[in-house]
């Protein structure tokens, strides 16, 4: 450019100045493109102060300091449900993974996101097409004659847009990040369904165990009723004693029916989770009590590394950042190269002769100047969506901390509650035994015996409910951590069913 300005020929100098003036907007655009900030991934805990350890660890559960962990959202979550050592649960989880409708919907959305990514990548490649047509036109400017003429054309067209400023590449990056987010959401949905299956199944087994307790109590009440009726006939007790026992029998039968209803609802919920029709869905009988997995120390340090919802939110932030860049680069020039080759002839019979061949090559530069504020509005909208994505990401991180704290607190307190409840059940059983012996020997009133049995039943049911809460909280912690916590016990279905 400097050489052109130093030439003595004024015509050449004027031409050089003109060229420089024409290239100035393009150079400025290149400088602006170089200054564009590239998307930067937010830290897994961006904007959230990271605590040194979980405050809910207490004495029952070990607390571990937070460590910097590499992203692990793509790692498998492990077959954590095998830790409960229940073959029926393992089979249900497998069936839900294949037929659950929520998982199928998430997989379909992932497939859609990947197709959009392929479409964005395809826009960066050469576009080739074929065309053919027949035109009837008149006019000296088009056919060289005032008489109407027919023009037939056939050929191939090719076009390619130069991605000088990275607009197309950033669009492709945004689509790729959207696909990453959908993949993380699929992982999140799969983990959610697995956790729902486990929690619903464990609650169902607890209800079935509670039904056994109620039936045992009902049998005891019925036995007491028969004894009281015989004593009434002998004149040893009043009719009031019989009415009291009849009340307990009827109330216990009502509890049994309520538990049957709850069992039916949980069974139907399991059928839907497994992707099956509730009508006719039957579970095999339980092989025993499910094991309660033990939480090893050091688990909380990597809670944010595998949580799929946090990974999805992070990918959404990156995609929003990329789209801000795409919106900003809409102001930059677009350069498109096009070419065509084929045949054109006023006679259809001569269309494919060698003499009728035709070709053309062109380059198109388009530069927006005024659009009434449309592009500025698009930039502001993209920035607003970025701010929303950042807020959502921070919310997901806060929820991750809260979820783990909730479950750790629950497990710590439930452990102490289960121990205390066990002592209460032992004492209640002994009290019932003593009251029954004393009542049969006529040493205590019937009211004392009924109170003892009610207390035993209440405490045994409470013990089952605490145990169920421990199962549910354990599954909730697994879900909060994004999956299992390491190597799963080598438990095979065949071994568990033995």
From TrEMBL:
<dbReference type="GO" id="GO:0005886">
    <property type="term" value="C:plasma membrane"/>
</dbReference>
<dbReference type="InterPro" id="IPR010131">
    <property type="entry name" value="MdtP/NodT-like"/>
</dbReference>
<keyword id="KW-1134">Transmembrane beta strand</keyword>
<dbReference type="InterPro" id="IPR003423">
    <property type="entry name" value="OMP_efflux"/>
</dbReference>
<protein>
    <submittedName>
        <fullName>RND transporter</fullName>
    </submittedName>
</protein>
<keyword id="KW-0449">Lipoprotein</keyword>
<keyword id="KW-0564">Palmitate</keyword>
<comment type="similarity">
    <text>Belongs to the outer membrane factor (OMF) (TC 1.B.17) family.</text>
</comment>
<keyword id="KW-0812">Transmembrane</keyword>
<keyword id="KW-0472">Membrane</keyword>
<dbReference type="Pfam" id="PF02321">
    <property type="entry name" value="OEP"/>
</dbReference>
<dbReference type="GO" id="GO:0015562">
    <property type="term" value="F:efflux transmembrane transporter activity"/>
</dbReference>
């Amino acid at each position: 450019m400097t050489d052109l300005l130093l030439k003595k020929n004024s015509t050449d100098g004027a031409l050089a100045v003109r060229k420089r003036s024409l290239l100035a907007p393009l150079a400025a655009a290149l400088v602006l493109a170089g200054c564009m900030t590239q998307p930067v991934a937010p830290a897994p805990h961006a904007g959230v102060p990271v605590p040194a350890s979980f405050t809910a660890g207490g004495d029952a559960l070990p607390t571990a300091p937070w460590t910097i962990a590499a992203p692990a959202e793509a790692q498998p979550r492990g077959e954590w449900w095998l830790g409960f050592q229940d073959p029926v649960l393992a089979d249900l989880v497998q069936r839900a993974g294949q037929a659950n409708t929520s998982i199928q919907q998430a997989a379909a959305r992932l497939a859609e996101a990947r197709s959009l990514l392929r479409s964005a990548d395809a826009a960066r490649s050469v576009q080739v097409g074929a065309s053919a047509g027949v035109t009837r036109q008149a006019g000296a400017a088009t056919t060289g004659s005032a008489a109407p003429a027919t023009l037939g054309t056939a050929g191939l067209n090719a076009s390619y847009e130069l991605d000088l400023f990275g607009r197309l590449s950033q669009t492709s990056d945004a689509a790729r990040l959207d696909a990453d987010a959908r993949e993380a959401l699929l992982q999140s949905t799969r983990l959610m369904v697995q956790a729902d299956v486990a929690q619903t199944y464990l609650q169902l087994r607890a209800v079935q165990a509670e039904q056994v307790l109620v039936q045992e109590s009902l049998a005891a009440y019925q036995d007491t009723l028969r004894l009281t009726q015989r004593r009434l006939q002998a004149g040893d007790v009043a009719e009031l004693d019989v009415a009291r026992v009849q009340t307990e029998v009827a109330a216990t039968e009502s509890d049994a029916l309520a538990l049957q209803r709850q069992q039916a609802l949980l069974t139907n919920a399991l059928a839907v989770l497994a992707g099956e029709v509730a009508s006719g869905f039957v579970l095999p009988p339980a092989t025993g009590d499910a094991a309660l997995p033990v939480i090893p120390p050091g688990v909380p340090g990597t809670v944010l590394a595998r949580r799929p919802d946090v990974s999805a939110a992070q990918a959404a932030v990156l995609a929003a950042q990329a789209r801000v860049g795409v919106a900003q680069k809409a102001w930059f020039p677009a350069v498109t190269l096009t070419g065509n080759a084929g045949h054109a002839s006023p006679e259809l019979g001569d269309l494919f002769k060698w003499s009728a061949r035709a070709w053309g090559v062109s380059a198109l530069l388009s530069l927006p100047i005024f659009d009434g504020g449309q592009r500025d509005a698009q930039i502001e909208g993209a920035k607003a969506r970025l701010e929303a994505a950042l807020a959502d990401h921070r919310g997901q991180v806060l929820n991750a901390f809260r979820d783990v704290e909730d479950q750790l607190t629950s497990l710590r307190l439930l452990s102490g509650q289960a121990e205390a409840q066990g002592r209460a059940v032992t004492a209640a059983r002994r009290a019932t035994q003593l009251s029954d012996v004393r009542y049969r020997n006529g040493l205590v009133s019937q009211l004392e015996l009924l109170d003892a049995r009610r207390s035993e039943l209440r405490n045994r049911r409470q013990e089952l409910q605490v145990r169920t809460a421990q199962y549910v909280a354990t599954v909730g912690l697994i879900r909060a951590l994004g999956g299992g916590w390491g190597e799963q016990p080598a438990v095979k279905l065949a071994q568990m069913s033995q």
